[in-house]
Design brief:
single chain, 320 residues, mainly alpha, globular
Amino acid sequence: MLYPGYRLHNDIWMKKIQACIPIFNIYCLWIIISYGVYWLVCEMPVSAIAYMVLSLLVTLFFILLGFALTAYYLIYGRRRLDAYPGIRLGWLLFSLMLAVLIYSLGQRLQIWRPVLFSINTANLFVFANLVGAFIVKPLKRMPELIILCVVVAFADLSSVLSGPTRSIVESIKTYYGGGMKGPAPPGDFLLIKLPAPGAVHLQPVFGVSDWIIIVFLSAAAFKFAINDNLAGRGLPEMDQTNRVSFYFPVAGFGLLLAMTAARLFELFIPVLPLIALVYIAYILIFYPSSRRLRKTDWWLMGGFVAVMSCLLGLGIILTQ
């Protein structure tokens, strides 16, 4: 005979397990697909033109996969973890510990196996989804998205031109330009890496911070009932039907735009300002309520831009 207390305890544990399933699925799907595609294309003999085309197709495939998994997490995983914040914290701690372990293996033991970076990218992707969806909670009004996009854009631009991101980019360029000899710089482990035709190693594409912002803006669209899907149904409608559809977010379009420009001009282009610009333009055009900025909002944006501009100018002068 089962007592009611036992049934209740068992139901709680089942719900906790169900809350973990989306995260576990994201880890498994990304690792299996990434490593599988790597083995398909790593020894593929290709010409220069074929390499460019196949590389673009593989990159586009994984970005679309990332969009789909983010939509999957926001529909099925986020709400379950909201009910069990301790489990979300546990996954965040697990993600950080796994990152430290992977860094130690790669840095100290110099194990450069592609499977290691497939796991690392999956881990960064899970971390980005957990953080990006969580930090949307304090938002109260749609116009606050405008402020945050401006803040993120200027902060990232300042960091790239005369801040920590500049140092990270320079160290990574030196490492890859020198034939990847010796231990990789710490910043290399913060990059989302994808397979490329004929490449022995997975190739860096963009940073984990870029995907955190994409998840954040997608989660914000979900919260304020914005349809940010350029390919059809928005996240709120997917949630109502409990079914994930093809998802191509506006923020993701900004990411692809930045990546395309970087390839065409062969330059390092900050991704976040372009993501923010595209997102701001979209919600201002299609959602008039986002234009209702208060006087304090304008003062906040203006003050931040002024301070960051001064710091940026000072940083550029000091680094000359």
